[in-house]
Structures are given as C-alpha cells and as structure tokens.
Amino acid sequence: MSKEDIGRIALGAPALQQVVLVSLPDCLPVKQWTRSEGRDSEAVAAHMGSLFGQAVDTARASAARGKALAVTIETEDAVLMIRPLGPDAAAGFVFDRSAPMGLVRMQARQLSGHLANIIPAPRESQDLSATPERQTRDLAPHVEGAAETIIAPARPSVVPTSTPARAGEAPKTSSAPRPRAVRLLEFFNRYAPDPHASTLRLSLRTGIGVEQLANPEALSEDQVEALAVAVRDILGQEQLGF
Amino acid sequence: MLTRDASCTRDLLWRLELPAGDDATQLADRLAASGWRDRSLLPILRDLEGPDGHRVVIVPRTGRVQLRICYVVPPDARAGAAARLAAALSQPG
Amino acid sequence: MDKDIIVEHRSHLLGHGMNFVANIPTVFHCHHFNLFWDQTIDDALGHELSCRIRTAAAREVFHDILAGLVTSAGASTPEERLELARTVFAAFGQGALTLDVSAAGGAALGRPLHYSHTWLEKYGGWIRRNTPADALAAGFAAAATEVAFGLPRESVQAVEHSCVARRDRECTFELSVGDATSVAGPMGRLQVERAMTDPVQGLLEDQVAPIEAGLREFSRGMLGDDRGLIQAFGLFATQTPSTYYNRSGYDALRHVNRTAPQSAPVMKALLREAGHVCVFSTFGGVLLSPEWEAMVGPIRGEPDEILAGSLAIARALGFGHWCAGEFEPGQRLVLQTPGGYESAYYVSREGRATEPMCFVLQGAALAIMQLIERVPWAERPTLNQEFYNQLFRNGLPWQAEETQCVSRGDPMCEVVVSRREPGNGVL
C-alpha cells in the first residue's frame, strides 16, 4: 500500500485530515497519511492503538455484545474515529469537526472497507531492516501535497522459524506448533530497536545466557515469562501480539 | 536540485545543488542581508538561521549547501519544509 | 546570562585530549551514544535503580560545575544562580529547563530535553516508552537547586513525573530536599592530570595534529541553540561531564558483578556497543559534514584519511589523545592513548582494576576500522539506522581487545583490532 493508495481513497472525503494504521493486538504504528503537514501523526499513532484496545476491553467489561465497530472521540475542532480493519489492524481517521457526524460515520465505514482490501497481509514480505529513512523516498523541491511517513516495523517474510529470525536471514519454514518462547523471540526480533543488540539486551534484563537464548525451545516457563516482561518493557507494550 | 544529504536521518538534512552559475557565497550574503541570523563559528563555513529555525550551512570553498530543517518540525512535515525552503532560496535576489 | 560563559570556561589538556568546563572533565557525545548508554544501565538494573544512579551521577557532577561557574561569574543571589544554571544546561545542548524552586524544593519543567526529544526522534516511530528518559536533567535540576540556595551537595532529590518520550506534553520534575547522601570525592582536572600517563606518539601525526587543532577551535564555540539543543553532523550532540557516564556505568557494573555476575560480560559487551555506535555515528557524521568539508576538504575515503580524521575528532571532542600505534588496512589497527576519560575516572575513584575497563574505547576502536573499511565514502552514504544494522548482518569481521589499560596499572591504554577468529562470539 502506497501513499498514493491512501491519498486516492481520501480524495472523496475532503474533511478527512489524517489516517493512521496500527497493527493489532500489539498496537504498533504501521502507516500514516496526513493531508497537511502541521500534525504529528506519530503521536496520534502512538496513542491510538492502546486507546482502541482499552475501548474494546471496556466494552467487554460492560457486557456489551457483538464485535467492536468503532471508537469515536469528539473535540472542539476534530472528530477521531477508530475502526478495526480485521483481526490484525485498526485505522484511525481524523476529520474536521465541521463535517456532519453522519457523514463522518459513513465515510469512516467506507474508508475502512477500502483500506481493509489493500492493507498488507500480516505476513506480507517486507525488508526486515526496513526503517523510516529507507522507506521514504527522496522528494524533489517541486513535490507538493500530502505528506506520508511509512513507519512499518519489520515483519517476517514467511512463516516464522524455530529460531529467532535475524535481519537478513532467510527463515526456514515449519509446520509443527512452535513453542511460546520461539514465537516471543520472533515477535521481538521483528520490532526490536537496535536489532544487533537485541539478544544481549534480553540476556542482561533477564539473566538468561546468550547461549540459552539461541535455543529458546529449551527455556523454562519462568524464563519465558521473564522474557515476556522484558520484551513488553523494551517495546513499551502492555500486551504482545504474538 | 534537492536531495537528502549524507548523514540525513528522519529528513532533517538536505543537500541543495544550486543552478550552474549561482554563487554559494552570494547566497549566504543575501540571507544575512535579509535578516537571517549569522551563526557562523568560522569564516570558512557560513551558518545562517532563518525565522522558522531552519538553517542554511554553506561551504564557500566547495559550494556545498546544506539545509538543516528545524527539529521541532514533525517528521512528516520535514520534506515539505525542505522543499519550500529550497524553492525560496532559489528565488532570484 | 550569556552562553559564552561556557566558552570562557572551556579548557583542554593538550597532549591528552581531555576537555573541561570549569575544570570538570567533559566530552561531546551524540544522542545515539547517550540513549544507548542509559538504556544499557536500565537493562542492567531495571528502570528505578538505574534512574536513581543516573540522577545521582548527574547531580554530583553538575553541582561541581555550577558551583565553579557561579563563583567565577559572581552570581550571588538564587535568581542569578538559577539563571546561570538554565544557561549552562542549554549551552551544553541538554535542552531548555525552567526551574521553579526554593530552598525547600519545588518543580522543574523541560521542553525540549536532549534525551526525551532524541528518544522520540530515534525510536518514537515504531515503539513506545513507558518510563521517563531524562535522569540527567533531573540530576541537573537537583544540583542547580543545591547551588542556588547553598544546600549541601547531593542533598536534593529529583523525580521526573511526566516525559515527552512517553508522549506527555512536557517533562516535569519534582524536587525535594532531604539529607545529604553519599558525597563522592572530587573528580576534576587535578584528578585527571594525575591519572594520565606520559603522552604517546603514533602514525600519521603530521595529518592528525592540524585537523585536531582546527576541530578544537571549532568545537570550543559549539553551543546549544535557542531551544537548548545542538543539531550538528546529522545528529544531536551534547557536551556532558564524563563523570555522568563513568559513575553511572561503573556503579551499574559493580551492582551487576555483585548480584548477577553471569551477566557482567553481557553488560560489558553492551557498553562496548555504546562506544561503537558513538564513533560510527558521530565520527562518521563529522567526516561527512559541511564542517569537515570546510576545514579539511571533501572526504575521499582513503584509509589513512579516515584514520587520521577519527583520531583528530577523538582528541578534539575530549575522548583522549588517541594515536595509531600500528595500522594495516583491513587487517589490524592498534589504538593507543595515555589514558582517556574512562581510565581517568577509574583510577581516581575505583582504584586498581584487575582487567581492562575502557569499554567505550574498545568499541570505538572497532568502529574506526568499520569506518575505514565498510563505508563507501565516495557515494556520500547516509549513515542511518538501516546502514548501521547492515554492518552486523553476517557478523563483524574484526574483534577488539584492550591489551593494556591505565586502570590496571599499564603505561597506556591500548586496543588491538584484528581479524575475528572463527568461533569468537559477541562476548
């Protein structure tokens, strides 16, 4: 999905100012689009994922039935509507407050449908080393219009391996159920900042040796729990989607 | 022509190639004359700061021109800010 | 109060590559290093203890700097002293700090602050942070309160409650006055001079010396901008008292040695990595910068040129008088120095070491070899995170070993970079 894809979808909704996509349930930002440059879409993305998760939990706690369709926040000058795009992603739409609420709901629903059709599959192939710098393109002075930052975290290219996927390695495929520790380390290696140091960091945080981390299937339950805490802390996540 | 400069991270540094015949030193003088703040530490490197906090760093001996976008500009907006600054600098005197 | 007061009080120990402000050792570091260093201490100790140790380290050393500066500036009232503190903080590139304090404590507010701002710049696009990032600013605010109101050194506590790195609107600190805690001994120019060994000479000196002189002149004027940050060389730089790094790092390592000795080698490897990311990013950024092009000329990428440039940068920024004892491109580099900011601290505060203790130097030497061999300089590379990550894809081809260390009683610190032997891991 490119900037142009989202931009085209947004064409029919002139009151739409921003679109922010986050992955679920880990709530990490995936992609953003802004009509004008004055807004810090990274900040919106950082808050939005957990907001949606909390809203869903709140709805469940209140015994609401049925799946969550939308979370809406109205401010004096904007309306933020968050809608799920399936099990793996959610989209946040920021509209001008002047837009009628009926129109906002309708357009958010329509836009969600379009985005759900073009959003990358959760396991879509991407460069494991992808970073914001790499994924944005050079802009000549004449380039105008909407700004985009692609901040997709690295994702594995195929079904994850039985050993932690390291940047640049071709993962092996496996059909056997994989231990929780393996999936946890795969998840961490997809998102970890400073990937070359990620194993050392987990080792220092948990006291589990580097050699042991190379064979995660042999870790004890206590060790896996300690790893999960470390991963949550490093990524700043309350829950992990692995 | 405007491209990301060496060491650019998150769209903060841009290299501006001036059109053939344009003089980088004259650009520095023009900016200083129009009220840009001269932050140069050494005469061999001109460092000028504009009203928006963006800086234009010029190496007179090689003609290199680097735009340093003010870091308070959100990352999304930096490429656009660089493009507008480059366009403004390209306007004749 | 003018930031030039910092320029007036900057000094250099020639032949040893050490910088001082008000006779307290300082060093220029980049945000990559700063974030990685603090992160490693967090990893080792957990955030709460790490934050306490880092805040205490900052409080101690900034107290000494501010006490020296208020005396020489004749700042006698609390208001004058607080204004001086605000100026010093910004001049060091640490950010903008507002202090609303009395002799009983109070509050401080920061925005932007170097650590939280650069954490968002570097990581904010794809991960979140739940803990505050500005222990150095907290320690500074405590020290400024102590000095402004004549309170005992290490008697004010500071806690950061909200932080921009956590996506809070601003960074806020609460300051309270308690009893003086453990008062560390002095760590100033005198201690550094005593800890240094005789100057050494190395290869390429005729190239290194003039670049060093030019860079030193340039860096003397390097100050934070109106918002209190230093944006230079494609990164954010700070001038930081080296005791902040040394005390926090060695205190944390001592704690790990006591509580989880099996993790000590891992922590040392991460401290080395801090030195590696520092030199690769900062020195690489300097070599590609307009500043370098103006002073030295466009970079060509020849091995001697990169090596000489790196040595000169290290000396000018306050790392130590780094020399090349031996150099065989792609094969072997022997880096020597009559001590550096790490060994000066260790010798003065920690006593005699039983093993080499200059972890930043070790990582730095390895990074110099990487800069020489693995950067396509002619292509004007972007030394960003992606490029950096690629260096490690298939393992590093070299290894670094500190073969001599002043902290251990050797006549110099020496790191040998050589081809990695098969089977040697990261530790």
Q: What number is the mean pLDDT of chain B? A: 91
End-to-end gap of chain C: 48 Å
Number of helices of chain C: 15
| Order of strands, widest sheet of chain C | 1-2-3-9-8
Could you name the ranges of chain C where pLDDT drops below 50 across 5 or more consecutive residues? none
Encode the helix/strand succession of chain B as letters: EEHEEEEH
Question: Whole-number radius of gyration of chain B?
Answer: 12 Å
CATH architecture of chain B: 2-Layer Sandwich
Write the CATH fold name of chain B: TATA-Binding Protein
The general outline of chain B is globular
Number of DSSP strands of chain B? 6
Query: How many domains make up the 3D coordinates of chain C?
Result: 2
- Biggest beta-sheet profile of chain C: 5 strands, antiparallel
Main beta sheet of chain B: strand number and arrangement?
6 strands, antiparallel
Structural class of chain B: alpha+beta
Beta fraction of the residues of chain C? 15-25%
The CATH top-level class label of chain B: Alpha Beta
Unreliable spans of chain B are none
The helical percent of chain C reads: 40-55%
Share of residues in strands of chain B: 15-25%
Overall average pLDDT of chain C: 95
Structural features, described:
The complex is a heterotrimer of chains A (242), B (93) and C (427). Chain A is α+β, with helices and mostly antiparallel strands and 242 residues long. Helices cover 38% and strands 15% of the residues of chain A. Chain A has two domains: 3-150, Dynein light chain 2a, cytoplasmic (Beta-Lactamase, 2-Layer Sandwich); 157-242, no CATH class. In chain A, strands 3-4-5-1-2-6 form a six-stranded antiparallel β-sheet, sandwiched between helices. In chain A, helix 1 packs antiparallel against helix 3 and helix 5 runs parallel beside helix 8. With 93 residues, chain B is α+β, with helices and mostly antiparallel strands. Chain B has a single domain (2-90), classed as TATA-Binding Protein (2-Layer Sandwich). In chain B, strands 1-2-6-5-4-3 form a six-stranded antiparallel β-sheet, with helices on one face. Chain C is α+β, with helices and mostly antiparallel strands and 427 residues long. Chain C folds into two domains: 4-177, Muramoyl-pentapeptide Carboxypeptidase, domain 2; 189-223 and 262-419, Muramoyl-pentapeptide Carboxypeptidase, domain 2, CATH 3.30.1380. In chain C, 48% of the residues lie in helices and 19% in strands. Chain C has helices at 4-8, 31-45, 47-73, 78-91, 114-123, 135-148, 189-195, 205-220, 242-259, 264-287, 290-295, 303-317, 341-350, 359-374, 385-390, and strands at 10-13, 18-21, 24-30, 95-102, 105-113, 156-162, 171-177, 230-232, 235-241, 323-328, 332-337, 398-404, 413-419. In chain C, strands 1-2-3-9-8 form a five-stranded antiparallel β-sheet. A four-stranded antiparallel β-sheet of chain C has the order 4-5-7-6. In chain C, strands 10-11-13-12 form a four-stranded antiparallel β-sheet, with helices on one face. The longest helix of chain C is centred in the N-terminal third of the chain and has 27 residues, at 47-73. Chains in contact: A-B, A-C, B-C. Chains A and C meet through helix 2, helix 4, helix 6 and helix 8 of A and helix 2, helix 5, helix 10 and helix 15 of C.
